[in-house]
Design a protein that fits this description.
This protein is of the alpha/beta class.
Length: 646
């Protein structure tokens, strides 16, 4: 038995007062003479004896009355916990996207929030941690208001952060009884993450009713040309084989194409759409099905075709290149070998090596890195090249070798109309055009795809091994060739540039660090913003002379299309998608935690956890019983005084 007000028990000392009153006989007896003394002595003995018993009974009832009253004011109780310490419950509620799915009773997050509201008591203090917010030292009323407004978030909170927060809260608490409750689906969580946990906790696992999921994993662009491009969609299936799944592609809100497909059990399948080129394509893919997660049935991506293609010519002056790569569609620069800005090479999309005699080692390394990063290169040799440097470059890329110079006047007679360079260039095959000639050329060995050929069927212009490296076997100066006067030179070199276009990153992931470069100039007090119809924010940004580098992570929070704005003028469109890790059906078996942590428990429901906490904290008050005992004592004394006669 414990007491809420134990200091009241000191009043028990005062019980000595009625004892003293009863022990000292303060009443004075008056003597009255009678004739029969013997009879009076006998009567006096009987009366004094009965009176003494009555006094002891009255003393007992009064002692019981005062004792019961003192104990009642001390408020005694029985409880497994210490009532002097307040109860503090730390609750982690997982609000990640994976909890936005249906369980047996409904939406996992909403049902979990409702069960917390229904089973918490009003006497405890609470701390609530979600994936986005932390609420410390709140009562049930405040907790209820927060939980009624709780929503799923794209932000993922790792378990290490949750456990660290629990430890910090324990260090702050004094004179409290703490309980830690983790409510989560434990997606992508592993049992070894609990090895350093020092504080006991109760784990409640939220489980979806469905155990299969189809999601759009990623998107790639291929087979791009002047008229169209191919959108390759990777669809991931986690579960049994599925047939007749509909998928559609939109440009903003306009439906472009739709098809149905099947996918085997636990596989990834590629779905292709051919889309016509547009200045700016706001791509949205939609899967139409109901499975475990719905948020991953949509995927957003952006093709910024309106950006100019960056072309760099290195070597001799070439007026024909500047006339082909006009400023309407290209950003063309020309540089001599001695004046190359090596820092700009990786920012180009097409590099034309125009009649260099030698490829220096520093340029060679830069070109190799440029090629490996997806850049396109056109090689036009000089009449007197250093074969060793050229072949070293090709060897680094495993693209064959150039043979020594051949001096032979040859006509350029054959066109490979099937090559992508000539897509939609010719309405029909041309057979009667004036053949250009060359007087010397450098043949090449290796796997090549002919674009234009000599009359002896050796390649004049070729694509090396299906790469983005194009080789012109002859110098194009007027002394060596008449190809500059040929009508072929414009479509070939123009399409070299068009096909070299590298789409900027198609989409970015929410809750991950994204770095975005914008080619623009802004004033000292100007800033760029990112916005869509429902949201706007100012990202972290660094300003340089001709560009601004933007970094996003905390924002945005919802998938969709956004625009980078400069004083309400759109500079670039962006697409954001939810992290694909949220689509994985990898969940921790919480029963493994019982083996690793003896002081921790795993509960099947939120109700069970709080019932156990409330039961342990239940107080059985006894003051009412003592008050009743005091009343009974009072009635006994009244009865003794009224009805007991000696």
């Amino acid at each position: 038995m414990q007491f809420k007000n134990p200091e009241v028990l000191y009043f028990l000392v005062l019980l000595i007062i009625p004892i003293l009153v009863h022990l000292f006989q303060l009443q004075k007896f008056v003597k009255t003479p009678f004739t029969n003394v013997a009879f009076l002595q006998q009567l006096q003995r009987q009366t004094r004896k009965s009176s003494r018993i009555k006094k002891w009974l009255i003393l007992a009832t009064r002692m019981l009355l005062f004792t019961a009253l003192i104990f009642a004011f001390a408020q005694p109780y029985f409880s497994d916990s210490n009532n002097n310490k307040k109860q503090h419950n730390f609750i982690y509620l997982d609000t990640s996207l994976s909890t936005d799915t249906k369980g047996e009773k409904g939406n996992l997050l909403k049902i979990a929030a409702q069960e917390i509201i229904e089973n918490t008591d009003t006497k405890s203090i609470y701390s609530l941690l979600t994936n986005t917010d932390f609420y410390d030292e709140i009562n049930k009323s405040e907790l209820k208001k927060i939980l009624l407004k709780v929503e799923n978030s794209s932000k993922k909170l790792d378990l290490e952060t949750v456990l660290l927060k629990i430890s910090q809260e324990h260090n702050k608490q004094t004179n409290t009884l703490s309980k830690n409750i983790l409510i989560s689906d434990f997606q992508n969580t592993y049992s070894n993450e609990f090895t350093n946990v020092t504080h006991p906790f109760s784990a409640v696992k939220l489980e979806a009713s469905q155990k299969s999921n189809v999601s759009i994993d990623s998107v790639f662009i291929s087979n791009k040309n002047n008229n169209n491009f191919t959108v390759r969609v990777l669809v991931k299936n986690q579960g049994n084989k599925k047939d007749n799944l509909p998928i559609a592609i939109f440009n903003a809100e306009k439906l472009i194409s739709k098809q149905a497909f099947f996918i085997e059990k636990d596989t990834i399948k590629t779905i292709e759409f051919t889309v016509q080129n547009t200045p700016n394509f706001l791509g949205r893919l939609e899967l139409s099905l109901s499975d475990t997660f719905l948020f991953d049935n949509s995927y957003f991506f952006v093709l910024n075709n309106r950006q100019k293609i960056r072309v760099l010519a290195i070597g001799n002056d070439a007026d024909f290149l500047s006339r082909i790569y006009t400023k309407e569609a290209f950003k063309f620069t020309s540089s001599s070998l001695q004046n190359i800005n090596y820092n700009s090479i990786q920012n180009q999309q097409l590099i034309v090596l125009n009649e260099l005699e030698n490829i220096p080692e520093i340029l060679l390394k830069s070109l190799v890195n440029f090629s490996k990063n997806g850049g396109s290169i056109v090689i036009i040799p000089n009449e007197k090249i250093n074969l060793k440097s050229y072949n070293l470059f090709l060897k680094k890329l495993k693209l064959g070798a150039i043979k020594p110079l051949k001096k032979d006047t040859l006509n350029i007679t054959s066109i490979n109309y099937k090559h992508p360079i000539f897509n939609n260039v010719f309405s029909k095959k041309v057979t009667n055009f004036q053949y250009p000639i060359v007087r010397s050329y450098y043949p090449i060995l290796g796997n090549t795809s002919k674009i234009v050929s000599f009359e002896n069927n050796t390649p004049f212009i070729s694509q090396l091994s299906n790469s983005a490296i194009y080789y012109v076997s002859s110098s194009l100066n007027k002394e060596n060739s008449t190809f500059l006067k040929s009508p072929l030179i414009v479509p070939i070199f123009y399409n070299f540039g068009k096909m070299s276009f590298q789409y900027p990153k198609l989409a970015y992931s929410i809750d991950q660090e994204n770095i975005i470069e914008i080619e623009t100039q802004i004033g000292k007090d100007e800033i760029l913003t990112i916005a869509n119809k429902s949201n706007s924010f100012i990202p972290l940004q660094q300003t340089y002379q001709n560009k601004v580098v933007i970094t996003t992570k905390e924002q945005p929070l919802k998938a969709g299309f956004y625009s980078i704005l400069k004083e309400n003028t759109p500079l670039k469109d962006l697409a954001y998608n939810y992290p694909k890790e949220e689509s994985l059906l990898h969940f921790l078996d919480v029963n493994l935690l019982k083996e690793q942590h003896k002081n921790s428990t795993v509960s099947s429901s939120i109700k069970d956890v709080f019932e156990k906490i409330n039961k342990n904290n239940e107080v059985h008050w006894l003051w009412k019983w003592f008050l009743a005992l005091a009343i009974v004592s009072l009635f006994l004394e009244i009865l003794i005084l009224k009805f007991y006669t000696p």
